[in-house]
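Input sequence (208 aa), recorded before submission:
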Amino acid sequence: MSLRADAPTAAPARVHRFSRAERWIHRTTAVLMGVCVVTASFLYVPELARLVGRRELVVRVHEWAGLALPAPVLAGLASRAFRADLGRLNRFGPHDRRWLRAALRRDRRRASRPAGKFNAGQKVYASWIAGATLVMLGTGLLMWFTHLTPLLWRTSATFVHDWLALTVGIVLAGHIGMALADPEARRGMRTGSVSEEWAEREHPLWRR
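Predicted structure, token format:
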């Protein structure tokens, strides 16, 4: 009988995916967006509104969190890695159109959904949430500085702000649900690296 201990199993290979700056941008933006969503819920849902004793404080927290929402992204422009990923998110190729067609057909085969570092769904989400944030910021400012705009503008801004806020909440819930379904993707955003096997399977066109 051999007394020699078995050789230790090699750890799975890891691939660098996000820099520290990118992870902090994501976390800070997520916190600010969460504050906006929670405070909006307490302002507009009657059952929750009755639980708040200082409505004016909730309004101010909501306003300042919304005003600060673009700040992490603007500060992140100092990061070369973040700028590079913004460029990737802003470019659509033939493989992205193929990914979207497969998603619309509910074709879940990996071969039908080729992706680079970011898949087409992530690119669409990033573009949509960036545009929605700017619209929410603009309409929020119109609602905040009531003395600077006519009544029609304020009424229209309130309508757009409220309904877009509901849509943002639904889209964010979908985004969180997809993240919860993919532990390795969450690990990549938390630690900055993912397994090589996951990268090859989920993002086969990613040139690392």
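Checked by second reader. The longest strand covers residues 14-16.
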